[in-house]
């Protein structure tokens, strides 16, 4: 019920009423790109198998497809040019992460998963944050979902890797699977 009311308020109130100065609301297309960027990173780094029995299963008991909460601050900070998100990124657990919109409307996620999201970085594990602050953010931010297939097809992994490489300039999956990248371009 709370989620339905949040969506209704988000749709009917003008952006100027909800957003603080220097902030603007994320567009649905930007939210979709954020979800895609996070999912692509999960497949690219091979973290998908760590999502077995995490979140709700929308697949079968034999083929787990994890439905995982994604909490997004609906107000994008247009002054500092960053947004905020909280979600589970296995094997690191729940993380607080910044993201950036580029001039073309693309999404860039802050931080490198291979560094483990230490407290010394802007994007870090929520275990380092005050519990009440994390709860407050989760309750007041948009609550949407990621879907992580714990047994993706080769095409799913390859496509995620290609999008990740375009987004960041590097694909861990392509690095680890040089023989499965398809024809060189």
Give a structural overview.
- The protein has 185 residues and is an alpha+beta fold.
- 34% of the residues lie in helices and 24% in strands.
- Strands 2, 3, 5, 6, 7, 8 and 9 form a seven-stranded antiparallel sheet that branches. Strands 1-4 form a two-stranded antiparallel sheet.
- A hairpin with a 5-residue loop joins β6 (93-101) and β7.
- The protein is globular and about 50 Å long.
Quick recap:
With 185 residues, the chain is α+β, with helices and mostly antiparallel strands. Helix content is 34%, strand content 24%.
- Any idea what the radius of gyration is? 17 Å
Order of helices and strands: HHEHEEEEEEEHEHH
Structural class: alpha+beta
Q: Which shape, going by the Cα principal axes? A: globular
Low-confidence stretches at least 5 residues in length (pLDDT < 50)? 7-19
- Please estimate the helix content: 25-40%
Integer tally of domains = 1
Alpha-carbon distance between the termini? 49 Å
Query: Major beta sheet, specifics?
Result: 7 strands, antiparallel
Number of helices: 6
| Overall number of strands | 9
Mean pLDDT: 87
How much of the sequence lies in strands comes to: 15-25%
Topology:
Blueprint: H1 2-12, H2 15-18, E1 23-25, H3 28-44, E2 56-57, E3 65-72, E4 75-77, E5 83-89, E6 93-101, E7 107-109, E8 124-125, H4 131-140, E9 142-149, H5 154-168, H6 172-176
Antiparallel strand pairs: 1-4, 2-3, 3-5, 3-9, 5-6, 6-7, 6-8
Helix pairs in contact: 3-5
């Amino acid at each position: 019920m709370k989620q339905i009311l949040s969506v209704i308020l988000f749709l009917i109130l003008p952006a100027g009423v909800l957003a603080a100065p220097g902030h603007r609301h994320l567009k649905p297309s930007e939210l979709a790109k954020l979800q895609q960027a996070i999912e692509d990173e999960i497949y690219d780094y091979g973290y998908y198998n760590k999502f077995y029995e995490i979140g709700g299963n929308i697949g079968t008991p034999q083929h787990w497809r994890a439905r995982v909460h994604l909490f997004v601050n609906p107000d994008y900070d247009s002054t500092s040019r960053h947004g905020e998100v909280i979600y589970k990124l296995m094997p690191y657990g729940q993380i607080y992460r910044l993201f950036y919109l580029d001039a073309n409307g693309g999404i860039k996620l802050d931080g490198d998963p291979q560094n483990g999201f230490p407290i010394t970085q802007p994007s870090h594990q929520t275990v380092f944050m005050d519990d009440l602050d994390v709860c407050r953010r989760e309750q007041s931010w948009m609550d949407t979902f990621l879907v992580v297939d714990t047994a993706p097809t080769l095409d799913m992994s390859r496509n995620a890797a290609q999008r990740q490489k375009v987004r960041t300039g590097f694909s861990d999956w392509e690095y680890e699977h040089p023989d499965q990248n398809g024809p060189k371009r």
